[in-house]
Design brief:
10 helices, seven-stranded parallel sheet, three-stranded antiparallel sheet, alpha/beta
Length: about 250
C-alpha cells in the first residue's frame, strides 16, 4: 500500500469512526505505528485531521461535516461541562438564541425552568429539549431542514431572525481560529449564524478544544464579536490568553 492510498484509507476511516487510535490502525494496515503517526501528521498539515495523544479526529470542512449522530458520541464529557458553564452566563436574559449542535442542545436542556424564557433556535432537537418546560416559549425558525444536523437554514430562517432583538445568543462553530475567526462548512448555515449574531445584544461561544485552530469554508464571525468563549481545559492556558487578547473572556472548564 502506497502512502497516498494509505492517506486516503486513513482519512476515510477517521471520518467514518470520528476518531482513530494509532496502535489499532497500524495493526489493521500492517505497518509500524511510526508510519501512521507520520501519515496523521501529513493529514493534519493539510488541515484534514487534528492529532491527539495516541490518535486523531477529523476536521470539518467544505467536503466533510460530522452528523448529529456522530456529535453525540464525541467529546461528550467536555461538552457537558461547557454547556453547564454556559448556563451560568444567562444572567437576566429573557430571549435567547440557541444554535444548532450537540453542546447547545445540552445547554437548552439545562436552562432554568422556574422563570419565563423565550428560546429561539433553528434546531429541531434543541426545540424538543426545551418545549416541555412550562415557562419556556420556543420559536423554531422555518426553512429547509438539513438532514445532517436536523436544523433549518435558508431565507425563511434569516428573515425570521431579522425581526427579533435577542438578549443573548449561544453560538457554536465547526472551527475557530485567531486568523480566520469562526467558520462553518455550509454557506446557508453561516448565514443563519451571522444573522443570529447580528440581532443579539450579547454573544457567547461554546466549543470543545478541538475546534480551536481549525478553519472551515465559510466565515460568519470574528473573535471580537463575543463577550465570552467557553471551552475545556484541552485548550492550553497560553492559547486561551491569546484568544482573550482579541476581546472575549475565555473560560476553560
Amino acid at each position: 500500500m502506497g502512502s497516498e492510498e494509505r492517506h486516503h484509507r486513513l482519512l476515510t476511516l477517521v471520518r467514518r469512526e470520528g476518531r482513530v487510535e494509532v496502535a489499532v490502525v497500524a495493526a489493521d494496515f500492517g505497518v509500524a505505528p511510526e508510519t501512521i503517526r507520520r501519515d496523521l501528521s501529513e493529514l493534519e498539515r493539510r488541515g484534514l485531521v487534528r492529532r491527539t495523544h495516541g490518535g486523531a479526529y477529523p476536521v470539518e470542512g467544505a467536503g466533510f461535516e460530522t452528523n448529529l449522530a456522530q456529535r453525540v458520541t464525541l467529546h461528550v464529557e467536555n461538552k457537558r461541562r461547557i454547556a453547564a458553564e454556559g448556563v451560568k452566563w444567562l444572567g437576566g436574559a429573557e430571549t435567547v438564541f440557541v444554535d444548532e449542535g450537540y453542546t447547545p442542545q445540552i445547554l437548552a436542556s439545562l436552562l432554568p425552568s422556574d422563570r419565563p424564557l423565550t428560546v429561539i433556535t433553528a434546531s429541531l432537537s434543541t426545540a424538543a429539549a426545551v418545549a416541555e418546560s412550562a415557562n419556556a416559549t420556543v420559536l423554531l425558525l422555518g426553512g429547509r431542514v438539513r438532514a445532517r444536523t436536523l436544523a433549518s437554514v435558508g431565507a425563511w430562517a434569516c428573515s425570521m431572525l431579522s425581526g427579533f432583538v435577542i438578549d443573548l445568543a449561544y453560538l457554536g462553530s465547526n472551527g475557530i481560529s485567531r486568523e480566520f475567526g469562526l467558520t462553518t462548512p455550509d454557506p446557508a448555515v453561516a448565514d443563519v449564524k451571522a444573522k443570529a449574531l447580528e440581532v443579539s445584544r450579547r454573544r457567547v461561544f461554546m466549543g470543545h478544544h478541538g475546534k480551536f485552530g481549525a478553519s472551515s469554508f465559510c466565515r460568519f464571525a470574528e473573535i471580537s464579536d463575543f463577550e465570552t468563549i467557553i471551552t475545556d481545559t484541552g485548550l492550553s492556558t497560553a492559547e486561551a490568553h491569546r484568544y482573550s487578547l482579541l476581546g472575549p473572556q475565555v473560560i476553560r472548564v
